## 1
Amino acid sequence: HNRRDDEGPENCRPGPAEIELRVRGGEVRDIELIRRFRDRADGAVDLGDVSAGQAVDYLMELARTGGSGSGLEEAVFPAVLADVEALWKDLLVLAREARVDEDVRTSAIFWVGQEAADAATEGLAQVALDDDEEQEIREAAVFALSRRPDIEAVPVLMEVARTASEAETRRSAMFWLAQSEDDRVLAFFEEILLGRGGGG
């Protein structure tokens, strides 16, 4: 499938990409991006070309259910490389699916955090503030928010720090705010400390 070169790992060039599916017992057990032709496994069967959209649909389904029903974290990365518009929407859906393997969901959240759309930040905030999510998933969403540009991330992290019901989520948001050089952060910390009665 075609891959984009605006994001993702260094040395990613536009053009077709090749992935290798390792199948055992009739089920996909592992996925690997082939970087050079000679990296192909001996005896590999070439299944031919597919469009970027078809590849992403297949990879996202593997990420969701996996060959063994547990989901395949390795499927997320090659899906992200595909030249498919607004893939972050599918990644957010994947990240929110409670039945999906936690590693898959964490990977999806990480890649949403790399997307440039403002709407991605809003979606991450929803995950971070969702009381029904596992704590590790909420903290992955907070971390992904921290990777966004300060102009987007700081207000949302402040909201999470103020309103999240779990102390660990609030603490995580405060930690990442402390890494920012944004002028709003010190004023926010002062507000928090004064609210605690530290204004004497």
## 2
Amino acid sequence: MVELILAALVILAGAFLFSFLRAKRKISRMQAELSRAWQELSQAMAARVSALEELASALRASGYVSEGEPKLRKAIEELRRFGLNPRELAEAHERVEAVLRGIYRALPREREERVKVAQNRLAEADEELDLRKNRYNELVLSWYEISRRFPFRLLMRKIARPEPFALPGEEEALLRRHL
């Protein structure tokens, strides 16, 4: 009888050990995926900043929206400054979007070709950024979901939680929708 109890305890201990090792491997894979996704997001943001600068130059050369171009340059500088924190980057991104909305409203219907090309390049950069942002946010939400499970909860206590690339109000809605 004692041997049977000891065998059951050894099997349970082995199962717990296996579970923790598997969870640890999964956590390290998720961290690597998050790191890659953030790097891709940063590259997409750099491409967008480049497209924004091209648009600002095209606006200046064309003489369109002369009061909007300095605001756009200032917003681009803020976007560059907040390159490491997802929440601050999302807020700076939103400020750029507000400036762009004002500029687009003030543009004439018939524009120079240079401005059209710059707008198209910016649209392509925005699409790429959206794809990368969604992928990164999916991984962050998966991280949150996994961190609530048993072995992961114990192992992830000491690991900093990644933040989604979203504004504070959007973050809560994103979490509610996913979880």
